[in-house]
Amino acid sequence: MRLLILLGLIYLCYRALKSWMIQSGLSQNTVSGDTTQQIDDEMIKDPVCDLYFPKKDGVRLKSEGKDYYFCSSDCRDKFVDMHLKKQ
């Protein structure tokens, strides 16, 4: 029983240390001898509602040779409506 409690405490300490290292930026990936920090995704701003979101989760619209990213299809539709009214 004591052994299980000891193993549980060691595991909890390990998880706490790992969490602290990730939050403080000490966790690094190694690629062919180089240490590089992992980048999740680029945060971009929705042009309609001014909300920041990960680019990979956005709704893409290509218009006049430019790429626009929106947080939702509703914001994309509002953007399209605003630009059609201006023209």
Characterize the structure shown.
The protein is α+β, with helices and mostly antiparallel strands and 87 residues long. The chain folds into two domains: 2-28; 43-86, no CATH class. Helix content is 43%, strand content 25%. The chain contains two helices and six strands; from the N terminus they run H-E-E-E-E-E-E-H. The protein has helices at 2-24, 73-86, and strands spanning 29-31, 34-36, 43-45, 52-54, 59-63, 66-70. The strands form three sheets. It has a two-stranded antiparallel ribbon. The mean pLDDT is 82.
Distance between the termini: 76 Å
Radius of gyration, Cα only, in angstroms?
A: 23 Å
Proportion in β-strands: 25-35%
Helices and strands, in order, run as: HEEEEEEH
Please state the oligomeric state of the protein chains shown: single chain
What is the tally of helical segments?
Answer: 2
Query: On the 0-100 scale, what is the average pLDDT?
Result: 82
Record the strand order, biggest sheet: 1-2
State the major sheet: 2 strands, antiparallel
Helix content percent band: 40-55%
Number-wise, the strands total 6
| Coarse morphology | rod-shaped
- Low-confidence segments, given as residue ranges, are none
Derived structural class:
alpha+beta
Number of domains: 2
Question: Could you name the key traits of this structure?
Answer:
two-stranded antiparallel sheet; two-stranded antiparallel ribbon; 2 domains; 87 residues; alpha+beta; 2 helices
Secondary structure blueprint with pairings:
Elements: H1 2-24, E1 29-31, E2 34-36, E3 43-45, E4 52-54, E5 59-63, E6 66-70, H2 73-86
Antiparallel strand pairs: 1-2, 3-4, 5-6
